[in-house]
């Protein structure tokens, strides 16, 4: 399955093929925030968490299913009831991936569901599958009866991949499982990083000013940021990279198992060991990072182009190595586009009555304890928000 995904789903060529769908959702992002700002000349107070999570959901739905909505949508480019329910269920599942459960260590207690995790997880997965399965099953029928012959999205690719004999390589259940895996993997990292980055930048206006100036210098105000601009947006990428370092999506990476005796960073790891890396321990290590708890994008600037992937494992963005995240290029594109479009298209400030953003972490995870809300005001010509 890993070979199929790497060669057929998220290869460089496939990502180029899906470029237009990502751009469409980046345009929809600014249109949706702009529609909220139209209620007042002073802009509007925007729920940034909802915006960034729905953007991530829109992008992966568009790439996977060639559709933004499961229902009718909200009419202003924003999510409808179905999309809100879908994204909420995705984040519920993701929140339990790293949760401690007694039955993981004492399987005989699983039937008691002491933490209530299994019940919550099953309910959330049922909600996700409710939306995915109806699309997948209908699409498989279209391929089988000949109504569809050319792929338009990643679901089509999964369905059309064949064995050497010409038979479909994946079963319906495998297609459903891989579709869900790809969607789970795409929604959390970009949205979490950008919410934290913007929160930190609102508390440090000079950082926000530098990022906006870079976008204005590289792109200008006569067009919107495109993926082709990314190589020149080093400060914006440094802000996103610093958010990954200081505010990872979870305290640990997913478990790995050593296949042989090895030594890493001076630690002997016997064959068969379960290996967990502390994301916060790496990214906030005072032996590696000066002033590790301070949001300082400049620490990532140098003579080379800034990349979000950290190959030296000083922190974990998309992981690295043979078992690293295969979707690093997609995750990078989503993250940089999301942050760059938000700061290019809108002037962001603290809501009235607020002197700073509370950067406390949630007691249950590493998200902001309180969803970020901020005052947004359009800063570009009106036709740029509505012409796409």
Let me know the number of strands.
7
Spatial strand arrangement across the major sheet: 1-7-6
Query: What is the CA-based Rg, rounded?
Result: 21 Å
Spans of at least 5 consecutive residues whose pLDDT stays below 50 are none
How does the overall form come out from the CA principal axes?
A: globular
Mean pLDDT: 90
Query: How far is the first residue's CA from the last residue's CA?
Result: 37 Å
Question: SSE string, helix = H, strand = E?
Answer: HHHEHHHHHHHEEEEHHEEH
Figure out the total of helices. 13
The level of helicity is 40-55%
Q: Largest sheet, if any?
A: 3 strands, antiparallel
SS strand fraction: 5-15%
Output the structural class.
Answer: mainly alpha
Task: Provide a brief overview of the structure.
The chain is mainly alpha-helical.
Strand and helix layout:
Blueprint: H1 2-9, H2 12-17, H3 19-37, E1 44-47, H4 48-65, H5 81-97, H6 117-144, H7 154-160, H8 172-203, H9 205-218, H10 234-246, E2 256-257, E3 262-264, E4 267-269, E5 274-275, H11 279-283, H12 328-345, E6 346-349, E7 373-378, H13 383-386
Antiparallel strand pairs: 1-7, 2-5, 3-4, 6-7
Helix pairs in contact: 3-4, 3-12, 4-8, 5-6, 5-8, 6-7, 6-8, 8-9, 8-10, 8-12, 9-10
Written overview of the protein:
With 388 residues, the protein is mostly helical. The protein contains 13 helices and seven strands. The protein has helices spanning 2-9, 12-17, 19-37, 48-65, 81-97, 117-144, 154-160, 172-203, 205-218, 234-246, 279-283, 328-345, 383-386; strands at 44-47, 256-257, 262-264, 267-269, 274-275, 346-349, 373-378. It has a three-stranded antiparallel β-sheet. Strands 2-5 form a two-stranded antiparallel sheet. A hairpin with a 2-residue loop joins strand 3 and strand 4. Helix 3 (19-37) runs antiparallel to helix 4, helix 3 (19-37) runs parallel beside helix 12 (328-345) and helix 8 (172-203) packs across helix 9 (205-218). The two termini are 37 Å apart.
């Amino acid at each position: 399955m890993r070979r199929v995904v790497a060669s057929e789903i998220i290869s460089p060529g496939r990502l180029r093929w899906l470029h237009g769908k990502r751009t469409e959702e980046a345009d929809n992002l600014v249109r949706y925030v702009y529609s909220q700002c139209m209620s007042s000349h002073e802009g509007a107070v925007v729920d940034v968490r909802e915006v960034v999570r729905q953007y991530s959901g829109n992008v992966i739905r568009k790439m996977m299913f060639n559709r933004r909505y499961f229902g009718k949508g909200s009419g202003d480019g924003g999510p409808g009831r179905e999309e809100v329910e879908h994204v909420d269920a995705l984040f519920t599942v993701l929140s339990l991936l790293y949760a401690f459960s007694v039955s993981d260590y004492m399987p005989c207690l699983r039937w008691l569901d002491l933490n209530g995790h299994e019940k919550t997880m099953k309910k959330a997965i049922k909600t996700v599958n409710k939306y995915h399965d109806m699309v997948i099953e209908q699409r498989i029928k279209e391929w089988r009866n000949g109504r569809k012959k050319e792929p338009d999205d990643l679901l089509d690719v999964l369905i059309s991949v064949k064995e050497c004999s010409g038979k479909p390589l994946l079963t319906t259940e495998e297609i459903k499982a891989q579709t869900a895996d790809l969607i789970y993997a795409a929604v959390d990292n970009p949205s979490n990083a950008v919410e934290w980055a913007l929160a930190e930048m609102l508390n440090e206006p000079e950082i926000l000013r530098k990022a906006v100036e870079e976008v204005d210098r590289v792109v200008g105000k006569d067009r919107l940021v495109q993926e082709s601009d990314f190589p020149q947006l080093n400060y914006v990428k440094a802000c996103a990279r610093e958010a990954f370092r200081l505010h990872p999506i979870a305290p640990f990476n997913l478990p790995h198992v050593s296949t042989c005796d090895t030594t890493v960073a001076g630690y002997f790891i016997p064959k068969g060991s379960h290996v967990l890396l502390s994301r916060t321990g790496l990214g906030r290590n005072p032996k590696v990072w000066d002033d590790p708890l301070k949001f300082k994008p400049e620490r990532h600037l140098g003579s080379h182009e800034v990349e979000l992937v950290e190959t030296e494992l000083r922190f974990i963005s998309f992981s690295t190595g043979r078992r690293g995240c295969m979707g690093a290029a997609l995750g990078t594109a989503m993250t940089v586009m999301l942050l760059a479009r938000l700061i290019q298209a809108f002037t962001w400030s603290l809501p009235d009555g607020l002197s700073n953003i509370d950067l406390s972490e949630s007691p249950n995870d590493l998200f902001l304890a309180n969803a970020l809300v901020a005052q947004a005001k359009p800063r570009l010509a009106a036709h740029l928000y509505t012409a796409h």
